C-alpha cells in the first residue's frame, strides 16, 4: 500500500497522476474488502478466511514477479535513437546521462524517471487481485483472532505485542522495498515476498485455531487441550467428542 504509485509506475504507467489514481483504486478495494470481511468472517470462519486469503496473496505475488521478470527480460532495449531523436516523444532522456547505458531496458528507464518508458502494464490487475485477496482475509481476520485468543490475564500484553509486531514488520517492509527492487529487481522482490507469505501460510495452518462461535472460556479450554491442525478449520467436533468422553 505504501508504494502503490511506485509499483504502478514500475509497470509502465509513467504519468504521476495516473499512478496516483490507480493507487487510490487499490485503497478503495482495500476498504471494500474490509466490509466484505465483516459479512463473511462469522460464516466462513477466521482460520479458513486467512488460509484462503494467503493462497490468493501467494498466487498474486508470484504472478506479479513473473510479469515483472517477463517485462524486464523481453522489453525493447533503450538506445540513443529512442532517447534523443523523437523530441517530445523521447522514451528515456535519463539514458543519455547513464554510466552504463548498454545494460538499460525500459524497466531501468522507469526506475530512473517517471517521464519515460514503454513496459508492459499488466500489473494493475494482479495488484488489484492482491488487494482483493488480502483485505477480506489477512487484512482483518488476524485482528479478530487477536482479540479472541488470549486468556483474560494476558489479553492486554498479547494485544500490545501483536500491535508492535505488526508495525515493526510494516516498518521493515516500507524501509527495504525500494532497496530490494534495486538489489534483486522488482521480480525478485515480489518473489521474496511470496516466499515469506508461504511461511506465513504454514504458520497459520499449524498454529492458528478456529475461534468462530467460541466464548473466551471455550477458546482457553481448547488451547489447553492442544490444537490439532486440519486443512481448513479446527474441528470443534473434536472438542465436543472430548466433552462427551469426559461426561461418560
From TrEMBL:
GO terms for cellular component: membrane. It is a multi-pass membrane protein. The chain crosses the membrane at residues 20-41, 48-69, 127-145, 157-178, 190-208. The keyword Transmembrane applies. Pfam families: Sugar_tr. Keywords: Membrane, Transmembrane, Transmembrane helix, Transport. InterPro entries: MFS_dom (IPR020846), MFS_sugar_transport-like (IPR005828), MFS_trans_sf (IPR036259), Myo-inositol_Transporter (IPR050814), Sugar_transporter_CS (IPR005829). It comes from the Eukaryota. It is found in: Membrane. The keyword Ligase does not apply. GO terms for molecular function: myo-inositol:proton symporter activity. Gene3D superfamilies: MFS general substrate transporter like domains. Residues 1-212 form the Major facilitator superfamily (MFS) profile domain. Belongs to the major facilitator superfamily. Phosphate:H(+) symporter (TC 2.A.1.9) family. Belongs to the major facilitator superfamily. Sugar transporter (TC 2.A.1.1) family. This is Inositol transporter 3. It comes from Sesamum radiatum. The lineage of its organism: Eukaryota, Viridiplantae, Streptophyta, Embryophyta, Tracheophyta.
